[in-house]
Amino acid sequence: MAATVENMILFLAARPVTAPPVRPIPRRRRARFRPPARLRPLAPYRRIFAVPGTRAFTAANLLARLPMGMLSISAVLMIAGSRGSYALAGAVTATGLAATALAGPWTARLIDRYGQSRIAVPATALATLGSLSLLLCVHYGAPDWTLFASYAATATTPNTGGMSRARWAHLFRDDPAARHTANSFEQAADELCFLLGPLLATLLCTTLFPEAGTAVAAALLLTGVLLFAAQRRTEPPAAARTGGHTPTRSPLRLPGLPPLLLTFLCTGAIFGSLEVVTLAYADAHGIRSAGGALLALQAAGSGAAGLLYGLLRPTARPGRRFVRCLAAMASLMLLPLVAASTGSPAALAAALLLAGMATAPTMVTGMGLVQSRTPPGQLNEGMTLAVTALLAGIAAGSASGGWAVDHLPGPGAAYGVPAAAAALALTITLLTGRRRPHRP
């Protein structure tokens, strides 16, 4: 037995010692670095536009929305250039504004009830015919009353921005953060259209012929709405097709909405008075051609703030955020008043840029409140009422700003009108917010 063990040991010892085979370590694929969401500033916007169909309806809506900043100034330049009367041009556009305030909510109610594609196209076609009628009446020297009748026919123009916001609200009805980002983008788009629209209209009317602005605006409006209506898969369902009860109660009777519309009225007064006062200030300082550029700075500040606001994740309740935004706007609207008193156009330009930065966040939050306080079947009508309140405020603000320019000592003092309108908007919100419980 011992010999056997000894032979086994000698046998094992005589075997050559070899290392075990080394298996190659599989090479791992290098993981692709993806920065966290907080380091990707445009992630919220990429997220909303990743939904199929959103890019198509947004591009079409921007094309349809651009004429909103062109039609009014094109009509003024066309009528004043042909008839030699800014008073007549202002009266015609004011008539169209009043007609829009009356017809706009009814058009929006039909859109809610029967659908965007079914109502928006014929309504836009009628408005386009009104613009073309105005163009022909001016060109061929028709009586003045035909100008009023023609421009009043453009009141059926649908609220293109409201229809786009309604689609976002439908797509992200269960995602408040995405709705906030979408509303911020829409407000920035509004600012862009009202920034580029007047510049394009002025360029067309002054370099080509007086009717060019109206003709191009009408063509863009009709083309954009046709393309927008063709995007059916993102269209919210009409109240008449959902099988539910079609609401007949006006949103004006909904709790919480009338005070909000009154705030929008004051906000519109800020915009209207700021435009008139700024143009008068530029004219008084011998830089009349720079008046549009000064107003463009205010719109640029608002648009940039709107995009940045969309990147933030809201924490406070919408009602509280709205009060904070109004407080910021009331504070920043004092800057143009202070800057104008120095007599420096450069200081005023910087003040308008800063003052505009509170506009978009205020409008985004306010439109969000309108959406939350309006039933889904009346969303277009509710937002159109908000736009109507803004238009009425713009008209009142323009009149108040013009009166202040003529009666106050120096155009700089007239900047007290937009500052007072901002303070009034904040006061109304504070008073009405205490009377009723908060609704997000």
From TrEMBL:
InterPro entries from the UniProt entry: MFS, MFS_trans_sf
Keywords annotated in UniProt: Membrane, Transmembrane, Transmembrane helix
Residue spans crossing the bilayer: 62-80, 86-107, 119-142, 212-230, 259-281, 287-310, 322-340, 346-370, 382-401, 413-433
Pfam families the record matches: MFS_1 (PF07690)
Protein name in the entry: Major Facilitator Superfamily protein
Organism encoding this protein: Streptomyces platensis
Phylogenetic lineage: Bacteria, Bacillati, Actinomycetota, Actinomycetes, Kitasatosporales
